[in-house]
Write a structure and sequence with these properties.
single chain, alpha/beta, Rossmann fold, 7-stranded parallel β-sheet, two-stranded antiparallel ribbon, 12 helices, 16% strand, globular, binds NADP nicotinamide-adenine-dinucleotide phosphate
């Protein structure tokens, strides 16, 4: 099991090279051709892959030809995903408000990083950024909407400015960014949009009114988008994670203690695990993914017996009225 986790650190070409080094002369595949079995060793495989890669290079396909844009790339899930996609050869546009934090992520990525420091909830700033990015780098192949914040509170403790800010990121940030690049993606006939969300977008709990409103709005956008995007080659994906050990709870004090106690039965993910899930989703887009497994189990239970999950959330939820 631990060995498998170790392997996940490597890219697929690195794993192939490692396999060839270890078992190059062993048979990797047997194929029947005109009644005869042909054996292909790992060395044979490696040569095929090498020839195809060299051919693609000759045709002009280069490392970094794919462009990803990530909002909320200065920390947590967004930063980890930016680092991973950078490692996989993507050029990555990093969006966030804290320039220094973006610089640190860009330093890890190297030449492929493009910094665009802005407030993603500001429509004009996003439109100006999109115009620059499209002119200088092209329309992104992948957009990951990970910018998000929000304190978990009851409505009587959520003043209008906080409510507006919570709708600003994630919901409007995702809406504006998606809007800004949609025409380019549709004209090209390809693109992957991933909206990062919380289980509160599936079922709600106490003291989370502003936070839940913004996640339901973003999920509504995603659901409606999937209707419009059918058959266009552009995919909208909703990625729901349980608790993640990012800086989210430092950035949004008071939220961690309001997590319903039932969440203790769900394993906490690391931002790096989320990044791997998202990188896989980029390659194989799906309408919705929910991680980890236990969270998926609660969702399935909710679909067949919503009253049960609601009751569990109520019994184990935060009871304070502050
Ligand atoms: N952590 C969890 O347990 C968890 C679980 C499920 C879902 N999520 C969701 O995943 C998303 C990312 O969370 P995280 O865990 O990665 O938290 P995080 O470490 O606090 O990251 C949030 C990111 O969003 C950016 N951001 C916030 N407001 C922004 C704005 N107006 N404009 C541009 N960027 C903005 C922040 O950058 P700047 O401060 O530099 O602007 C930061 O890079 C959030 O929507 C969160 O609700 C989190």
């Amino acid at each position: 099991m631990n060995d498998n986790i170790e392997l996940l650190k490597f890219t697929i070409p690195q794993l192939l090279r490692w396999r060839v080094k270890e078992t190059g002369t062993k048979v990797a595949l047997r194929e029947k051709d005109f009644g005869y079995w042909n054996n292909y060793t790992w060395n044979d495989y490696y040569e095929y892959v090498k020839k195809i890669a060299l051919g693609l290079e000759k045709m002009g396909v280069k490392k970094g030809d794919k462009l990803a844009l990530i909002t909320g790339a200065s920390s947590g899930i967004g930063a980890a995903t930016a680092r991973l996609l950078g490692k996989q050869g993507y050029r990555v546009v990093l969006i966030g408000r804290r320039r220094e934090a973006l610089d640190a992520v860009a330093a890890d990525i190297g030449d492929g990083a493009i910094i665009e420091a802005c407030d993603a909830s500001d429509g004009d700033a996003i439109m100006a950024m999109a115009e620059r990015v499209t002119r200088e780098h092209g329309v992104p192949d992948v957009i990951i909407n990970s910018a998000g914040a929000g304190k978990w509170k009851r409505i009587e403790h959520t003043p209008p400015d906080e409510a507006v800010a919570m709708m600003g990121a994630p919901h409007f940030a995702a809406f504006f960014t998606t809007h800004a690049f949609m025409k380019g993606m549709l004209d090209r006939g390809s693109g992957v949009l991933i909206h990062i969300s919380s289980p509160v977008s599936l079922f709600t709990w106490t003291s989370s009114v502003g936070y839940a409103s913004a996640r339901w709005a973003m999920r509504g956008m995603h659901e409606a988008l999937t209707c419009d995007l059918r058959g266009t080659g552009v995919h909208s994906c909703h990625a729901v994670f349980g608790k993640v050990s990012s800086e989210y709870f430092d950035h949004n004090p008071g939220s961690e203690e309001r997590i319903p106690k039932i969440a203790r039965t769900v394993r906490t993910l690391t931002p790096e695990e989320c990044a791997k899930i998202l990188a896989r989703l980029v390659r194989h887009p799906r309408k919705q993914v929910i991680y980890p497994f236990m969270m998926r189990l609660y969702y399935w239970t909710y679909l067949v017996a919503p009253w049960l999950v609601r009751a569990l959330l109520r019994w184990t939820g935060y009871k304070g009225r502050d």
